[in-house]
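Can't paste images in this forum, so I'm doing it all in text. The chain is below; anyone willing to post the predicted structure tokens underneath?
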Amino acid sequence: MAATLLPVIPETITVHLGRPGDSAPNVQVNFVDYIKNVASSEIYPTWPEAALRANILAQISYALNRVYTEWYRAQGYDFDITNTTQFDQAYVHGRDVFENISRIVDEIFNNYLRRQGSVEPLFAAFCNGTTSRCEGLSQWGTVELAEQGLDAFEILQHYYGDDIELVTDAPVQDIEESYPGRALRLGMSGNDVRRIQVMLNRIRRNFPLIPEISSPDGVFGVETEAAVRTFQQVFNLAVDGIVGKATWYRIREIYNGVKQLSELQSEGVTFEEIRPVVAPEIVYGTTGPEVAAVQYYLAVIAYFNRTIPLLAIDGIFGEETRDVVYTFQREYGLPVTGEVDAETWYRMTEIYDGILRELPPGFTGERAALYPGVVLKRGAEGEDVRRLQGYLAYIGNAYGWFTPPEVDGVFGPATEEAVFAFQRQQGLTPSGVVGPVTWAAIAYLYDGLLGY
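Text version of the structure:
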């Protein structure tokens, strides 16, 4: 399962039994059991219940902040949190837990705190309030406030401010690392690309040498490549303009730092920042260009793998499309759900890319080439752009819908305007960007003019 953009409750959490750099063991613990252990190690079961609940909610939020921001994993560690109070919160592996604390945790383990308007769980800093003091919650102070009649949330507002809110009944699911599993490079598109664009633009405010990405639209264009290259130069990474695992996590680490996501007064991650550009799941009843893209990929795969039924490209996820998705998932060892989740999408595009690599030169003859597997937009250059311009020029001369662009291999304003005009005339979403759906429509019309 891919990492989620919204916080969830992890089924398990990996705890390092020592300080971050110590050669100490890691233990993987059920998240509920972890919170019960922390609460039993940090606070006293004889405290008023309102104080217990306030402390436990702070402990849950603290741990979830570490998990959501990948605070340690972004620094190259293989754990989520440590068991030392110098860095995190106390965890004593193998200890017994208190019965009343266990009951409370079972009730509220999937609730957490966040600032209003922010996505990430609050970094709910706390200290005991006697031998140590801090900006956040005072553990012993919660007892006094509970005895004054404040409930758990009022106690938390006392320490963290009136702008906090309680998220309740968050979903529980297994969480994988945020790195998408394949390097992001020029021409790719999707939500993972947009995450990188948003993070780089925020980092740029602190490191202005990094060029701005004018439109974080989820398309890895030349602006994004330039920003990645400069980031790699600034932070002493191999400069290739590709976001592999090392670059991904270095970007994540610097982003966490400049936004102070693991500090009490964090800048916060806004909901706009995580807004998806591609629906995370394409399911029965969905319509639109994302569905048409799925159908296009499946249609090409079906041509080379006769186990997969041929499929019309109409942008409607009906029974026929669902049946083909079922077949594709069975054929390639995926969970057979009939839904196009991230795992199915990546596998589909991976198979498609493999087909492109194996095709001999001139496979399609005079007919239009298959979609090259990369999004083409203003600033792109190369043979794929040249082919696109050739098809558009032929169509433009035949129908007069737009001025034919020059066939020079450079996706400039004239090519963009021709794409806009073609998309408007064909009833496609006018974006000036050529993905699989627009490419397929151009190729279909071009082949028709050639008599195929």
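The CA atoms of residues 186 and 221 lie 6 Å apart. The chain has a mean pLDDT of 90.
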